[in-house]
Amino acid sequence: MLVNVKKNTISFGFFVILLTFNLFISCKSTSSYQTTKIEGKKIGVTNEKGENEAIATYVKPYSDNINKDLNSVLAYCPETQDKSKGTWQSNIGNLLAEITFELGNLVFQKRENKTIDVCLLNHGGIRAVIPKGNVTTRTAFEVMPFENSLIVVGLTGKEIKTLAEYIIKEKKPHPLYGMKIYIDKSTSAINKIEINNQPLDENRIYYVGTSDYLANGGDNMTFFKESKIKFDMEYKLRNMMIDYFKKVDTIPNITTEKIILE
User: Fold this and answer.
1) Per-residue DSSP letter, 167
2) Recorded GO terms, molecular function (predicted)?
């Protein structure tokens, strides 16, 4: 009886060894396989399956609360603010630049004891109009849906001149504040640049408020990227809009010319 048990044990052990060897050989043989083709399939998101009522019921209190905040009226706009209307500047661009200059200065002065001289944003960053009527928190999210923050960049007067040349060459109504560029109406050559109604000093450092996107060279604004003087105000441009809307009763329609033809 003991002999039989021993024989069975030996047989079982041999079987395990044989199985392990076969698995080893199998795994080894598959290692030579190579991917030759990958195919993908586009699956559209449609209403074919309908709405999941359980999920919709669960989410509803949260979505209702968010919509309540987004739809809260902050101010009134007597005239539509539109970036597409205007050659060198637009009313919404003037507004956003002035908001950034005004509220950004409060933070910059408190943190660095310095003053912003100029504000420059980009035309493409404005993603919606501010329609005539009530202005809400949702309006700010629609106009500026990105998470861009205020960066103050130090530029020399010579670099400010490069900035002005960029604006004239682009021929886009980029939001601009604190700066006037006088150009020849026939050749578009720059005749004069003023910063806060004072002639440009090429040897002075000017502080320009802009977005983190542009400060890193976005929209080919390399004059910002190359600067070593940068201050992060940790203040989102969209939040500035919301704070400004809360502060005023009526949104101004700013039509002041920044690019002056002579």
Assistant:
1) H
2) hydrolase activity
* pLDDT tens readout for residues 73-111: 999 999 999 999 888 899 999 999 999 999 999 999 999
Number of separate domains in the chain: 1
Give the separation between CA 245 and CA 188, rounded to whole angstroms: 36
Instruction: Kindly tell me the burial class for residue 228, based on how many C-beta atoms sit within 10 Å of its own C-beta (0-12, 13-18, 19 or more).
Output: exposed
Give the β-pairing of 230-236 and 149-156: antiparallel
The residues that bridge with 59 in the sheet, in sequence order, are: none
**Which amino acid appears at position 159 of this protein?**
E
As a whole number of angstroms, the distance between CA 12 and CA 35 comes to 38
H-helix segments, 150-193: 157-170
Is residue 37 very low, low, confident or very high in pLDDT (cuts 50, 70, 90)?
A: confident
Identify the helix (H) or strand (E) that includes residue 237.
helix 237-247
- Answer yes or no: is 231 within a domain: yes
Task: Kindly state the tokens that stand for 150.
Answer: 């205020």
Output the pTM of the full model. 0.78
